[in-house]
Design brief:
3-stranded mixed β-sheet, 12 strands, 30% strand
Length: 228
C-alpha cells in the first residue's frame, strides 16, 4: 500500500497582518520549490481589509478609505478579509498533482463543499461565478444565491499560494465596501455559516476543513507551525 503524502497544517490563534502573512507565505512557497520544504496549509484570520486581485477594477472599490487595501498578486478581483472569516493559505506542489491547474482549482472547490457538508449545508460552484455558493431562493421567489467561500490562488513554478476564505461569522456589512469578486447583480450576495442560522465556531470549521482536506487531496496532515 502506497504511503499517503504528508502536508503540514498550522493554525494562527491571533489575527495576522496581511503584509506579514503574504511575505511569509511567499517565502514558504519558494522554500517548497527550491529547498524541498514541507507543503503547508496555514489557517488564520486577518484584521478587516480589502485585497485586490490581478483582475480588480477600480470602480469595484466602493469605499476606498474604509479599510486598508492591499495588492494581493493572486487571480480574481476585490475581496474582503476580516475577523470571523477563516482564511486558508494553500502552499502545495501542483507538480505532484499532475500539473493540472483546472483540476487543482476543482479540488479546492470540492474541499470547501465537502467541509460544508459537515454542517448539512448544500453548497456548490456556479458557471461563470468564482467561489462556492448556497441557494437561498424562497419558494415562489426570485432567484437568490449567496457566496459563502471565495477562492483565489497563484502558482509560481507549480507551487501554489494564496488560497480560500470561508465565511464562518464575519461582519457581512463589511463586504459592502467593495463589489465582491466584481459581481454586482442584486440576485447574488454574501452569507456565512452563522448567517445561515448555524451555531458554528471557528474550531468547528477548522475541524471540518481538516477532515475534508484529507479526503479530497488524499493526504495525511501533520501539525505545523504558523508562519507568523
Amino acid at each position: 500500500m502506497t504511503e499517503r503524502a504528508k502536508v503540514e497544517w498550522a493554525i494562527s490563534q491571533s489575527p495576522v497582518p496581511y503584509e506579514a502573512a503574504k511575505a511569509a507565505m511567499e517565502a514558504r512557497a519558494r522554500a517548497i520549490r527550491e529547498d524541498g520544504a514541507p507543503e503547508l496549509i496555514w489557517l488564520l484570520e486577518h484584521p478587516p481589509l480589502y485585497t485586490a486581485g490581478t483582475s480588480a477594477k477600480a470602480f469595484d472599490l466602493r469605499m476606498p478609505d474604509r479599510f486598508p487595501v492591499y495588492e494581493a498578486g493572486r487571480g480574481g478581483e476585490y475581496t474582503y478579509h476580516g475577523p470571523g472569516q477563516r482564511v486558508a493559505y494553500v502552499m502545495l506542489d501542483v507538480t505532484k498533482r499532475g500539473r493540472d491547474v483546472r483540476a487543482f482549482v476543482a479540488d479546492l472547490e470540492r474541499w470547501i463543499v465537502e467541509a460544508l457538508h459537515a454542517f448539512n449545508v448544500e453548497a456548490g460552484v456556479r458557471e461563470g461565478r468564482v467561489g462556492v455558493w448556497v441557494d437561498r431562493t424562497k419558494p415562489g421567489g426570485q432567484l437568490r444565491e449567496e457566496k459563502i467561500a471565495a477562492i483565489g490562488i497563484r502558482l509560481k513554478r507549480w507551487v501554489s499560494f494564496h488560497g480560500i476564505s470561508l465565511n464562518v461569522e464575519p461582519d457581512l456589512e463589511h463586504f459592502t465596501g467593495i463589489t465582491p469578486c466584481g459581481i454586482d447583480d442584486p440576485r447574488y450576495g454574501v452569507t456565512s455559516l452563522v448567517d445561515l442560522g448555524l451555531p458554528v465556531g471557528m474550531a468547528d470549521a477548522d475541524e471540518a476543513l481538516l477532515r475534508a482536506f484529507e479526503r479530497v487531496f488524499g493526504v495525511e496532515t501533520l501539525p505545523g507551525d504558523p508562519l507568523v
